[in-house]
Each structure stands twice: as structure tokens, then as C-alpha cells.
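It is worth pausing here to work through a concrete case rather than discussing structure prediction in the abstract. The textbook approach is simple: state the sequence, then state the predicted structure, then interpret. We follow exactly that order.
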Amino acid sequence: MPHPHLDRLLHHLADREGGTDLHLKVGSPARIRVKGALETVPDEPMLDKGTVDAMASAVLTQGARDTFVAQKEAECTYSVHGLGRFRVSAYLQRGSIALILRRVTASAQSFEELGLPATMSFLAGAERGLVLVGGPAASGVTTTLAAMVDHINHSRACHVVTVEDPVEILHKDDMAAISQRQVGVDITSVAQGVRSALRQDPDVVVVGRIDDAEVAASALAATEAGCLVLAGVRAGDAADAIAQVVNLYPDNDRRHIRLAVAGVLVGAVSLRLVPRRNGAGRLPAVEILRNVPRIQAAIMGDEADEVRSEMARGAALGMQTLNQSLATLLERQEIDERAALAATPDWLGFRIALEQRGFVIPDE
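Step two, the predicted structure:
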């Protein structure tokens, strides 16, 4: 059931250029994230428990309510007619429910629209194997996976099965038939969804996020069955994305899993969203890894630094490190030095590299 106060706040969010998230918690006024920074919604009173509870009741599905009771947190989607869809994250803080609603695009965007490198088409065009898409929270992993599905949808006659928690971006069949399955609605868990996908004649399986060994094992089994698996991970860079999957397993299993990943990996992508120099939104800085023989050997040998070195030398193969991507954005004057330094995982090394290239680093 709609909640007029909540919908008014969501309209305010949608009206702000660069507005992405609405934050609601007891004892605080509503806040929105605009171009990466939180700001208070003007003329809004402090939210009391009754108001936030009523908003939660309006947006949470029955499945999300059941999950919230069991786990004290839950996710779902909420739609407002004429406005769009929002991903809802509900959680407890200080014993009271809190909500964050994030705007999601109604349909997938292309690689070009998102500013992603041409190598993405090669990764999405693979017939089989594993592609990892990594990044911290709110870095564009979901949007990038959706763009890969969109590319497949318009270029390959196949069956794509997505396993999502929740479904955010909706796909309309073109060349491909796309089955979107949501945890808590269509399936009971991510691992169960990936396992059952193998009984649904899939060519491509999309896993919103690999976050435990059971999901990882199911994803690897899908590659061994001949599928292309596109999977999100929470990772700092492309080498870390591989390590995140391997490290889900006990120590005595990791060598075997590392060899398995090295054998099926097509490539890995790592993302950061960086504020534009002119303040109009954010741009993706993108790290790209392709599993060429030298990188495969480095993965098998657990040599993450060698993986990164090979990426840095792999421009002819469409590879680049995050720092190389950030440097390109700087050279194009699309971002500034401070934003680049905030985005890099290697702050000191990147700062030295920038100064050697003549960039002036602003004083703190």
C-alpha cells in the first residue's frame, strides 16, 4: 500500500540531479545522497518510530518481512507509479527499523551509455566460463552485470537465467530468453537458484553476488556444465575478486579451488564510481583482467602482484589496472586529482605516479 509521506520523499529524491539514495531512521530527518554526499531533506521533521515502521510496512513484501523477522535485515524492491523502482534495504539500528531506498534504472543500459571499455563486449560474448564483476558497495556492479545481460540479449539466441536478491533491473526478451529469479519469491536461496538453473536448459547464468562457498561451488559447477557464468563479488580489484572466491573455502581446499577458478575464468572486472570534475554525476573507473596464459599461471601460483603487473602490461589485449583507468580519466580532465586519489586502492603509489606525470596534488 502506498505511503504518501514516503512517496513524497522519493519524488524529492528523483527531482534532484544526481540523487541516488533515501535514508530513513528513527530520531533523524530524512536524508538523500546526491552526487555521492548525504544531505538533509529541507523542512523535514525528525522521524519517529511509528512513521518509519509505517513506511517499512508499505515497502516490504511479505517475503521480506519474513526474512526481516528471521535475520533482522532484508531487501526487496518498491515501485512508485510514474517514478520508477527502488531497491529497499531494511535493517535494525538501536533496536529500531531503518530503511535505505536506492533508485534503480527501469531497464539496462549499454556499455557505451555506462562508459565501460570495449573489452566488456569480449567478456560478455564468451560462450562459457566464469566472469567476475567486483567492487565495493554502490560501485555499479549490479548495473554492469545488467549491461552484460543486455549485450547478450541483443547478440545471442540463448537462455539466460539470473539469480538475484532482489531483482532490480528488468530485461525484455530480444534474441535471448531471460528468466529472472528472485530470492524469497521464486527461489529460497542464491545457491538453490544456481543449482536449479542447471535443470532449466541455461546457456548463461547470472549470480548477483557470490558470498559463500555453497554459492561459489554452484557457480563453478555451472561453468563445468558448459554455461557462461557472470557473477558479482565484493572486491577491491580484479585480483582480489579472484581471491574473494577462493578464500570462501577452508585453507586445505583453496589450492584446488584456485586451480579450478584459473581453469574456467574468462576475465574479471573491478569498478569504482568517481565524481566528475564538473560535479554532474559520476564516472566508472574500470579495471579489466583477461585470463591469458601468463595471468592464468599467476593465478595458479597465488601470485596476486604478478596478476596486477600483467594487467598493467596488457593494454594490447584490452586490459588495464584501476590506476591506469583513473589516469586516463584525469588526462581527459573528466575527474580531478583528489577524486582519483580517493578512488584508488593504492593511494601512495598512485600519488607518486601522478606527481611524476606532472599532476599537481592539492594540499589537504
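Step three, interpretation. The first strand starts at residue 19 and ends at 24. The first helix runs from residue 4 to 15.
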